[in-house]
Write a structure and sequence with these properties.
With 393 residues, the protein is α/β, with parallel strands linked by helices. The protein has 2 domains: 206 residues, Rossmann fold, CATH 3.40.50.1980; 130 residues, Rossmann fold. Helix content is 41%, strand content 18%. It contains 14 helices and 14 strands. A 6-stranded mixed beta sheet has the order 1-6-5-4-7-8, with helices on both faces. A 5-stranded parallel beta sheet has the order 11-10-9-12-13, sandwiched between helices. It has a 3-stranded antiparallel beta sheet with strand order 2-3-14, with no helix packed on it. β5, α5 and β6 form a beta-alpha-beta unit. α1 crosses α2 and α8 packs across α9.
């Protein structure tokens, strides 16, 4: 499908959901999720009590992840200046941060049949800590497991809407009788979800347009081949369009890593690019040009490279670092900029859910200088009523 047809198809579905509400949501869910008997009663799932999960290790794992994600974002929130003022030229001006009232969180269906519990954690928790009052969770209907509902219950989410794709994004943007309208939509998705988000920018707040997962791994011979290989493959397995780059500081490790992949995961080798770069400044330049979602430094020279990096969604370094910990339990949200957008954007965080409001206090009263200069600028722009107003100051 060419780009124009693709865009037009998304636009049509958005229009139908805006116009026909739940009936369009049901129609497209039946079509795209191939659930012939999907009906109105299937959209909303109420979680009145905790699902019965006997998997004790899962429960401990979820609690561990929740604890780390909360600790990180609570610390982030404490380190944000939420209210400030400064005084100049007889004016006191400043800024305050307030949370958006409502957010829709899109949780994608996993490639292997399980909706992403990790994304539920990585989006709901920062929204809650930021102070968002209303959180609406949508996710494709086929694989809403008891594990997913258990996690939602732990997060005090008491209802989940089993709708995915374009129709879910449109429903959140405009609201239907069943699915509430929200002020902001966050969360990753496939190309259809991303295009729907792109088309709805301005109608509703959008966090970022996330594409397929990606990682840059910088490696030398200081780690076993298996660690480097698995780090490359871990992000590549998210999606057939996911990308991994190996920047090797030693030429010999490229052949070892490539051979290992060809023997054990041949179908994924086309998703990986192999580069030998000796010069550290060139390594940094290459990383900044790629602006990867994830950057893992499996090298003795990480402390030389790290200060030079300005474009990346998240950087993993230290002793035996891995982006996989970032995907699940490290703390910062794994919803990160992709496709070089780390050049100008950041990952999901507390800031995603906060709005900045400028404050200008005229309690002292503006000076003659304010009135004179403002009047002149308004005159130059032809704004006569602006001019008349400030002349009365």
């Amino acid at each position: 499908m060419n780009e124009l047809k693709f865009s037009a198809k998304v636009k049509k579905i958005i229009y139908d959901v805006k116009t026909y509400g739940d009936s369009a949501v049901i129609k497209y869910t039946r079509m795209f999720d191939t659930i012939k008997d999907f009906s109105l009663k299937d959209i909303k799932v109420e979680i009145k009590k905790s699902p019965n999960i006997n998997d004790k290790l899962f429960k401990r794992s979820i609690q561990f992840a929740i604890e780390n994600i909360k600790k990180f974002h609570i610390a982030e929130y404490k380190n944000i200046k939420k209210f400030w003022f400064t005084k100049y030229n007889n004016i006191v001006a400043g800024q305050k941060l307030v949370p958006v009232d409502s957010v829709g969180i899109y949780i994608p269906g996993g490639r292997y049949g399980y909706n992403y519990i990790s994304t539920l954690l990585m989006t709901v928790i920062p929204a809650q800590i930021a102070g968002v009052k209303k959180i609406v969770v949508v996710t494709p209907p086929k694989n809403v497991s008891e594990y997913f509902l258990y996690t939602a219950y732990l997060l005090k989410i008491r209802e989940v809407y089993k709708v995915g794709g374009i129709q879910a994004i449109a429903a959140l943007a405009f609201g239907t009788k069943t699915i509430p309208k929200v002020d902001l939509i966050v969360g990753p998705g496939n190309i259809w979800v991303s295009e729907a988000k792109r088309q709805l920018v301005g109608t509703v707040g959008i966090d970022l347009i996330a594409g397929p997962s990606e990682v840059v791994v910088v490696a030398d011979d200081s780690y076993p081949v298996e660690i480097v290989v698995f780090e490359l493959l871990a992000q590549a397995e998210h999606d057939k369009n996911a990308k991994s780059w190996l920047i090797a500081l030693n030429k010999t490790i490229i052949e070892k890593i490539k051979n290992y992949i060809l023997l054990n995961a041949k179908e994924m080798v086309s998703q990986i690019q192999f580069k030998y770069v000796k010069n550290i400044n060139r390594v940094a330049d290459m990383i900044n040009q790629i602006a990867p979602e994830h950057l893992t430094l499996l090298t003795k020279k990480q402390n030389v490279i790290l200060p030079k990096i300005k474009n990346a969604g998240a950087i993993f370094y230290g002793k035996n670092p891995s982006a996989v910990f970032g995907d699940y339990t490290a703390g910062p949200s794994h919803v990160l900029p992709t496709g070089t957008t780390a050049r100008f954007s950041s990952g999901l965080s507390i800031i995603t859910f906060l709005k900045k409001i400028s404050l200008v206090n005229f309690s002292i009263g503006p000076t003659k200088k304010f009135a004179e200069y403002t009047s002149k600028l308004a005159e130059i722009e032809g704004m006569q009523w602006h001019n008349k107003r400030v002349q009365l100051s």
